[in-house]
Structures are given as structure tokens and as C-alpha cells.
Amino acid sequence: MRFQREHEQAPEQMTWEEFKVLLRQCVTDRQFPHPNELPRIIVLSDKVMQYLQQDLGATMDDTRERQAIFVFNIFEKTISLTPSGTGKTIRADNIFRLRPGDVAIGSYHTHPPVTGELHLSRGDFTALLSQPSSREFRVFTLLLTTSSGFLMAIRTSRTPLLNKENLVKRLKSIEHDMRLIEKNIARQVLLFTKAVCLELGLVLYFSPSDNPACFHLVDVTQIPSY
Ligand SMILES: [Zn+2]
How far does residue 25's CA lie from ligand 1's centre (Å)? Predict the structure, then answer.
């Protein structure tokens, strides 16, 4: 018999402040959240939304992706956001000089208008599921677009620990399966996003364009949309 850690059922809804408490706990315990600890709705703060919208606006102007990292400082017990940068590689040390005690706990990035459904790419999942280290303990990633809303994926205690080579292999094999199942490329990427979350134990949230601060839990076993 396997010992199961007891988990309190999450509240129906969490504010950004409450979500930050959970994040701080995760990093301090070096343990990803159990799916039961995650609420149905997470509402981001006005301040965070302001940063996201600013970068999204900039991406719409010049079509370059923007990204930034949420950093937890284990000594100060604070969560802050790095200045945003452009480019494809989402690494905290590329765009921000890490201070002692800084741990990357999450990220966001923008996508310029693209065809196809809202999705997280293989590269996005690879960045989120990087091996935890003293500098990296990525719990979540946010993807922003103007047309179809925002996505957030949260890594959980159910997510297998894979080295980069095995992770990429696994993601490529899911990609391959989705190509066989769905010929329409626009829909393939949506299926890929859901299949990865299902298979790798991630919890997915979607926020619609008309209320982007409010992230709703997605049932990844339901195919039609978010
Ligand atoms: Zn992306």
C-alpha cells in the first residue's frame, strides 16, 4: 500500500495573494502542488494583469514575443516579476541578474497573432518542466494572446520527473500521436496541449479575452475547446 499525503481540499477560488501563499509553500517544501490543492478559479491581481497586458500590447505592435519570470526569494520570502525581455529562450538568467536566494517559480510569455487554436508548444512545456534545481522550481507558466484568451499550466506532484532528453522524447511522441488523430493543424495544437496536460499530470486553466484575469480550470478530457 502506498502512503498518501493528506491534502486539504482547495477553496473554490483563489486570489493572486492566496495563490502566492501556495507557491511559497511549494518552493519551501520543494514539493509541487497536489491537484487537490488547486482551486477551480484563480484570479490574477490587477498589477500582474497590467504587466501582462503591457507586454501583450508591445507584441501586437512589433510581433516579437515578450517573456518574464516570476521569482521567489527564499530569504526575503517575496515573489517578484523580472523585467520582461524579448526572445525565445525563457531563462531567468537571460533577462535578469538573479540575486542570492532567487528561484524561478513561473513564467509568462506572449504569442504574436498566429493561426491555430490557443496552445502551449513543445518548447513551452520543455521550459516549464525543466529539472528542479536550486535556481529553478517552475510551478506554472502563462501564455498570452489577444484573440483567444490566456492559458496557464500548473505542474503538480503527479508530474513525472523526466530528464530533458526523456521529456523531449515524450513530448515528441505525443505530438506524433496527435498528428495521426487530427489532420487539421489548427486543432492539432489544442489537442497536443490537452494531451500533454493529461499525460504529464499538469493542471490547465483558461481565461477568456473578455475577463482575462479570471482563470478557469479546464477539463482536459473534453475535446471541443477550452
Ligand atoms: Zn509559446
Answer: 27
